């Protein structure tokens, strides 16, 4: 609060050098926070990077961080990283005090530590929004003592109870999705756009991998699943599309693997596409090959858009998908299982339609922006002492 303004200032710091699902989820929250109660203060360490570009395109105002340090990726116990944090803290503490920030809401590992320490020193409350799995070093060793509250995107992502654990101060809150925006997407138009983009036959089955190409998401497995599909049913015409940027050369690795398996001519690297809804809606199936995924945004988006989902029975996926009802769950790291699931979808239109209709109804009920904002603002109220136990009860009223 500042200058007599009764609204609570909530600071959202981001590094800004990389776009992930956390940025899209945070964007939905920032845009929909009730302005009569909260003033979002978005801060970027990289004001020319992809996150800045995304926020500008979406009309989200932001400010440059008070330090030039972009908090480069480093091990949590790296001495250089510790020195960098120490040098950065004084400027961040002054910034939070000058802007009268009541809550610092962090959304990724680098921001959790640095801005969390700054919040503690500045007298601000700290909400750590955890989107990784429960085995991460930060969640196990730092979250128990640093943040005032913790929000996890799924039960799988939540800390496990123990003598030294953040479990007691953690709530599960689903990521937000613009349900009405999804309703407006025309699948036939979207499919036509995809077909035109890769110049393939209208009868081609379009299978998608949507997300950053990182090892945990198993982009190579996606290629191997397509190769298994070709081997099991040589007559089916299909195309595999990668939507997302790559880390550590995994796009080149995927290309090499595709060539080695004889499906190089069926793979298309589309890069990062925004908004993703227009592309996901054009797919015949979304393959979620990731393992230990806390709660993939694209999985829920596909359900809302009417695209059937085939996902690894791993991580938070089983918390979202009911096998055979709202999607298909297959054995992780098994390309043949993914291929067989694709063939089942292709050959049984009644089964496919049941999954699509059930998934869309379920996702609309569970993942709306309104439910997310309600749950997060209840946590804010609890942090500030304005909601008391009522706020905490509201959060827990929406379990997975």
Automatic annotation (TrEMBL):
It comes from the Bacteria. CDD domains: GT4_PimA-like (cd03801). InterPro entries: Glyco_trans_1. GO terms for molecular function: glycosyltransferase activity. Keywords: Glycosyltransferase, Transferase. It comes from Rhizobium fredii (Sinorhizobium fredii). Pfam families: Glycos_transf_1 (PF00534). Residues 203-361 form the Glycosyl transferase family domain. This is Glycosyl transferase.
């Amino acid at each position: 609060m500042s200058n007599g303004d009764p609204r609570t200032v909530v600071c959202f710091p981001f590094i800004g050098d990389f776009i992930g699902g956390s940025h899209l989820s945070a964007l939905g929250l920032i845009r929909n926070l009730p302005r009569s109660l909260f003033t979002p203060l978005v801060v970027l360490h990289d004001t020319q990077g992809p996150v800045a570009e995304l926020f500008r395109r979406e009309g989200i105002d932001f400010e440059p961080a008070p330090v030039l340090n972009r908090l480069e990726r480093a091990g949590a116990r790296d001495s250089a990283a510790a020195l960098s944090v120490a040098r950065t803290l004084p400027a961040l503490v002054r910034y939070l005090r000058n802007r009268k920030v009541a809550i610092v809401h962090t959304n990724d590992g680098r921001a959790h530590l640095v801005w969390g320490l700054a919040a503690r020193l500045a007298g601000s409350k700290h909400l750590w929004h955890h989107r990784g799995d429960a085995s991460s070093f930060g969640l196990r060793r730092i979250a128990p003592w640093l943040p005032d509250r913790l929000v996890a995107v799924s039960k799988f992502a939540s800390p496990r109870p123990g003598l030294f654990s953040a479990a007691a101060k953690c709530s599960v809150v689903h990521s937000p999705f613009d349900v009405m925006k999804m309703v407006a997407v025309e699948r036939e138009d979207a499919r036509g756009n995809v077909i035109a983009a890769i110049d393939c036959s209208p009868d081609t089955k379009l299978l998608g991998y949507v997300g950053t190409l990182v090892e945990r998401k198993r982009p190579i497995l996606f290629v191997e699943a397509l190769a298994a599909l070709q081997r099991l049913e040589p007559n089916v015409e299909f195309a595999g599309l990668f939507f997302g940027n790559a880390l550590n050369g995994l796009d080149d690795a995927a290309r090499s693997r595709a060539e080695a398996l004889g499906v190089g001519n069926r793979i298309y690297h589309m890069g990062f596409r925004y908004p993703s809804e227009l592309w996901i809606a054009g797919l015949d199936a979304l393959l979620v090959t990731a393992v230990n995924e806390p709660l993939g945004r694209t999985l829920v988006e596909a359900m809302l858009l009417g695209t059937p989902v085939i996902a690894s029975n791993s991580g938070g996926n089983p918390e979202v998908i009911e096998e055979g009802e709202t999607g298909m769950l297959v054995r992780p790291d098994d390309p043949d299982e993914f291929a067989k699931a694709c063939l089942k979808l292709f050959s049984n239109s009644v089964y496919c339609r049941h999954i699509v209709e059930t998934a869309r109804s379920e996702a609309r009920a569970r993942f709306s922006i309104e439910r997310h904002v309600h749950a997060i603002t209840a946590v804010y109220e609890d942090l500030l002492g304005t909601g008391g136990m009522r706020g905490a009860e509201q959060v827990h009223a929406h379990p997975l």
